[in-house]
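Design job #97: recover the sequence.
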């Protein structure tokens, strides 16, 4: 892959200049996606396939209080879709590093915040498209939000907030791992983290220690919160994490961002030293 976008040749010292650079670099990522529509399409449709598999193959064996399993599953899969962004981000960053694209961009007079922001903005646009596809699929299989528009949009806002945090985790891990081959370890970890949550089943059905870990998983916080905001069936454990799921869904991504955004910026600055 070659970097074909034209990046400004002056130092971006002002906020406006950094913003222009970030938009330009966002365009570079989007142009790259246009050249490989097949992989983008697979990434968008894979969560839909999981909804169909879990909803129709296993849904009959799932007992959900106060509703259908599909209404419980779709918010969980919306949350899992945000997690899948971490995997794709790691692969994208390591691919750029391995092919020398990252070093070529580093040689240009562009600030580190602009470079990382460009990658983050592109990922959030991808997340928004993925959410739209998943919502359409959910509506087609019978899922719906039973709350008003404002609460429904608040639920989507929590999902994008979680994806924003995972974006910085992915950028940092991609810069640390550097090669697509080493990034396979992240792919192996994504699935256990995803399944160790309330995305598919209630933590109440798990062994005590495993259920506790699942309860405090950031994915569980967001999945539980958006089920509440959408008026979908939820699990009813009496604990702080469940009763304050919306608060926890705001806190977890903030903590991840505060930790991994500076780490990503620092790792980018020392890359290649």
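Job complete. Output follows.
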């Amino acid at each position: 892959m070659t970097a074909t976008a034209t990046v400004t040749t002056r130092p971006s010292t002002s906020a406006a200049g950094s913003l222009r650079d970030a938009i330009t670099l966002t365009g570079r990522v989007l142009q790259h996606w246009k050249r490989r529509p097949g992989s983008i399409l697979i990434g968008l449709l894979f969560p839909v396939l999981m909804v169909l598999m879990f909803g129709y193959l296993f849904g009959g064996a799932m007992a959900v209080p106060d509703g259908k399993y599909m209404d419980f599953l779709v918010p969980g899969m919306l949350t899992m879709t945000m997690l899948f962004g971490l995997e794709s981000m790691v692969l994208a960053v390591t691919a750029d590093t391995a092919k020398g694209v990252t070093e070529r961009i580093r040689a240009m007079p562009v600030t580190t915040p602009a470079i990382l922001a460009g990658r983050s903005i592109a990922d959030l646009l991808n997340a928004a498209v993925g959410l739209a596809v998943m919502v359409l699929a959910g509506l087609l299989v019978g899922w719906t939000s039973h709350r008003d528009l404002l609460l429904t949009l608040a639920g989507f806002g929590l999902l994008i907030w979680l994806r924003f945090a995972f974006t910085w985790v992915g950028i940092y891990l991609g810069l640390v791992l550097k090669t697509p081959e080493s990034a396979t370890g992240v792919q192996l970890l994504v699935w256990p983290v995803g399944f160790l949550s309330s995305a598919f089943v209630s933590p109440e059905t798990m062994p005590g220690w495993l259920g506790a870990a699942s309860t405090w998983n950031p994915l569980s916080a967001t999945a539980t919160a958006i089920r509440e905001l959408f008026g979908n069936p939820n699990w009813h454990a009496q604990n702080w994490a469940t009763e304050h799921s919306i608060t926890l869904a705001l806190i977890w991504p903030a903590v991840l961002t505060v930790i991994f955004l500076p780490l990503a910026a620092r790792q980018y600055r020392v890359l290649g030293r």
